[in-house]
Specification:
The complex is a heterodimer of chains A (about 350) and B (about 90).
Chain A: E1 3-10, E2 13-20, E3 27-32, E4 38-44, E5 49-56, E6 60-66, E7 74-76, E8 91-98, E9 101-107, E10 110-114, E11 122-125, E12 149-155, E13 158-166, E14 170-174, E15 182-183, E16 203-208, E17 216-220, E18 223-227, E19 235-236, E20 245-251, E21 259-264, E22 279-282, E23 290-292, E24 310-312, E25 320-323, E26 329-332, E27 340-343, E28 349-357
Antiparallel strand pairs in A: 1-2, 1-28, 2-3, 4-5, 5-6, 6-7, 8-9, 9-10, 10-11, 12-13, 13-14, 14-15, 16-17, 17-18, 18-19, 20-21, 21-22, 22-23, 24-25, 25-26, 26-27
Chain B: E1 2-5, E2 20-23, H1 28-38, H2 42-46, E3 47-48, E4 52-53, E5 57-61, E6 64-66, E7 77-82
Parallel strand pairs in B: 1-7
Antiparallel strand pairs in B: 1-2, 3-4, 5-6, 5-7
Classes of the chains: A mainly beta (about 350), B alpha+beta (about 90).
Chain lengths: ~350, ~90
């Protein structure tokens, strides 16, 4: 029988939740990674390994690896330093892993790659030469909590093509493994002055339809957006949502028109509106939205969900999962129609990823 | 030989790394080199590229705040402290 495994990155280590295909009963293991703050934990399917991007205030940044679903771990930061010594690598923010290659995005913005199971790393790109990149590393542009290169999205098993988000700057695409980049922000909205036409957008999260790779969805600081041309142009689809702000997003694995978001208040709170928890779903590519709150707390629930903290599995009836800044994990085994709390009292959750293992 | 004391946050990261050990090093930097030779990767946990001592790691030689260049006299005590920070 297959297992459904959730990798939970938290401010105090990595946790693993396991269930069977029914996804009703869950067992929790952890904390792992010596309780280092884990910004993102992912599963690399070819080797069956977990990787966790972690940054300790005392001992610096490292990528942790477990080849046995969390029972034992190693870590390394060998080579995790910018070639330009004036750039400080303050944290490892995000991971993407496929076909034996692991990419990690870092602050100051950059991407490192490992092809030896995380034992050693080499700098792949800092996106140097992109408009305005000469000031990305200014300390004034790196406040505490800044993630730098905040997300990576792979193109299946292709090693040459992938996308990267630079926090507060925008989405970029490479087709030659980071040698050159193209900004992919056309059609996005920004509510602040921008010095360059192609960048200066606050892209929070981009997801891609597994059933139609040309279809992408984006949660931006300023609205929800859809692309029908592989990210080359974007159309806003915010109307019908309670807020244009949020971080997390998930694309249905079998239906290109179905997509999930977690709208948040855009002020300092950045929790779900009115203290009532809900995930919102569109089933028509963003023309309309449905509020999904059954089983979620509806009173005095001030839950935040960060950009990597929602995931969807690839079962025939997909399961949805999200983790909160107050340490709960909620799951739905019926595409978001109903929810249950499958873990409580964890540290603040940074990331949730899901894998189905035979 | 100097009597070196390591923080409890460090020892779980490396196999059989003790909290307390003897090192034969002329300076703090040489002591870090010795630790790196015995436990590869340990330098990165105490130092940033440069190398520079990480901002939340403090070294003391006989109770005096030290840098990587600080000499280690024979029979001295070296303390490596994870600074009081975080929450």
């Amino acid at each position: 029988m297959s297992k459904t495994v959730l990798l939970i990155g938290t401010r105090k280590g990595c946790f693993v939740l396991e269930s069977d295909g029914d996804r009703r009963d869950w067992g929790l293991r952890g904390p792992y990674c010596e309780e280092w703050p884990v910004y993102h934990a992912v599963f690399e399917p070819s080797a069956g390994a977990i990787y966790a991007a972690a940054a300790s205030e005392w001992h610096g940044s490292a990528v942790w690896r477990s080849g046995d679903l969390g029972e034992t771990w190693t870590h390394s930061s060998e080579g995790l330093a910018h070639a330009d010594a004036s750039k400080k690598l303050s944290k490892v923010s995000t991971l993407a892993a496929s076909s034996g290659r692991v990419l990690v995005g870092v602050e100051a913005p950059g991407i490192f790659a490992s092809r030896d199971e995380g034992a050693t790393w080499s700098e792949l790109s800092t996106l140097a030469g992109q408009p305005g990149s000469e000031v990305w590393d200014d300390p004034a542009n790196q406040p505490p909590g800044h993630l730098g290169l905040s997300a990576l999205m792979l193109d299946g098993d292709s090693s040459s093509k992938f996308w990267a988000i630079v926090q507060g700057i925008g989405l970029f695409e490479t087709a030659d493994e980071g040698t050159s980049w193209t900004p992919r922000n056309r059609g996005l909205r920004a509510e602040w002055p921008r010095e360059h036409e192609d960048v200066g957008f606050c892209v929070h999260k981009v997801v891609r339809s597994a059933s139609d790779p040309t279809r992408m969805y984006q949660q931006n600081h300023c609205g929800m957006h859809r692309s029908d041309d592989n990210g080359e142009t974007w159309t806003e689809i915010t109307e019908g949502l309670p807020s244009d702000f949020g971080f997390a997003a998930a694309a249905h694995p079998h239906d290109r028109d179905t997509f999930y978001v977690v709208p948040l208040d855009p002020g300092h709170g950045r929790f779900m509106p009115d203290g009532a928890a809900a995930v919102w779903r569109t089933s028509d590519g963003g023309s309309s939205w449905q509020r999904l709150g059954r089983g979620l707390p509806q009173e005095r629930a001030y839950l935040g969900v960060l950009r990597e903290a929602m995931a969807i599995d690839s079962h025939d009836v997909p399961g949805l999962y999200f983790g909160t800044s107050t340490g709960q994990v909620f799951a739905s085994a019926d595409e978001g129609e109903s929810w249950s709390e499958i873990a409580s009292y964890l540290p603040a959750i940074s990331s949730v990823e899901v894998a189905i293992l035979d | 030989m100097a009597d070196l004391h390591l923080p409890g946050t460090l020892t779980p990261l490396f196999a059989e790394l003790p909290r307390r050990l003897e090192v034969d090093a002329a300076t703090v930097g040489a002591a870090v080199d010795e630790l790196e030779a015995r436990w590869p990767g340990l330098r990165d946990r105490l130092c940033e590229p440069g190398p520079l001592i990480r901002s939340h790691i403090h070294f003391y030689v006989d109770q005096q705040r030290a840098t990587l260049d600080t000499p280690i006299p024979p029979h001295s005590r070296v303390d490596v402290i994870a600074a009081i920070s975080g929450g």
